[in-house]
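thread from #wetlab-drylab

HS: before we spend reagent money on co-crystallization trials with S-adenosyl-L-homocysteine, can we at least see a predicted complex? here's what I'd submit
DV: go for it
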Amino acid sequence: METKKKDIRALTKEQLRQFFVEHGDKAFRGNQVYEWLWQKSAHTFDAMTNVSKETRQMLEDNFVINHIRVDQMQRSSDGTIKNAVRLHDGLVVESVLIPTETRTTACVSSQVGCSLDCRFCATARMKRMRNLNPDEIYDQVVAIDNESRLYFDRPLSNIVFMGMGEPLMNYNNVLKAIEMITSPEGLGMSPRRITVSTSGVPKMIKKMADEEVKFRLAVSLHSAIDEVRTSIMPFNATFPLKDLREALEYWYSKTKNRITYEYVVWKGINDTREAADALVRFCKFAPSKVNLIEYNPIDDGEFQQANADAVEMYQSILESNGITVTVRRSRGKDIDAACGQLANKS
Ligand code: SAH
């Protein structure tokens, strides 16, 4: 029986150096292989041309490289690209490339499925199968960077953790992936161009604040009234707004970073003046930005985008209270690539 080989990218650089020393080679070999694995995204040991054949064979005998495969790529009429990404164990996640005039943003997944139960989100209908490993998150970014260079003649500029899954429920792996994305030994991107979006896990927001992370934080709020939020995001019963708010105050006191809120206005749910006032009260304590996102229907008609008047009402109330507002149009709707639509349908 073949013993299970280890994912070589689960090793730190130091562990890889150590491995070579233990196998009678120089620690420096570890640096070379590490560079192949991350910066050069090698898919096979054979690609490591400055490493001897014997060494490559020795690596082959001990490890695997669990690189992702883009199984299917769909292009929207607005230029958005959706990748169906097959993982080494056959599970599939999705990631999205969103082009604008000046930027290319990668929207990446952090889990297969999701353990949260937001009632308006297609991903919530899948079971959470497992967390993604750091290299599986990293590879999604590399794939989109390559597509951006190929189709838009420019490198990837921004990353948002707004694909499948709740990044703060897979915090350690997300953090490791970001370390490699930002490291000169990986992609060397600025952490300021990375946004982690969360439904709001207070304990983890505090941990991020303590660790003084340099990336940006977005919170999917959707309602600042507990009763309403719990009805659409049931885990709010466990992490109520009071705790979320306290964690965000802590985050701001430590990082002095503006907080972004994502917010959909739905007919009959949060399209009232009272709901908008509650939002202002919730986010006024720190410099904030609210992204009013368009709702992307996920088939059963239970939720409906509020009419334009309600969105304008939100916009003017927020602005008159000094809160930055943007109204986001959906991208990639025709290929089910928009917010909340990722569910491995194709
Ligand atoms: N779990 C994280 C990451 C997912 S991000 C989070 O909740 O932030 C995806 C964003 O799309 C979140 O703001 C989510 O609330 C929003 N969303 C989910 N379903 C949606 C839908 N059908 N239409 C528009 N936005 C949706």
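DV: Residues 15 and 318 are 51 Å apart (CA to CA).
HS: ok that's useful, forwarding to the group
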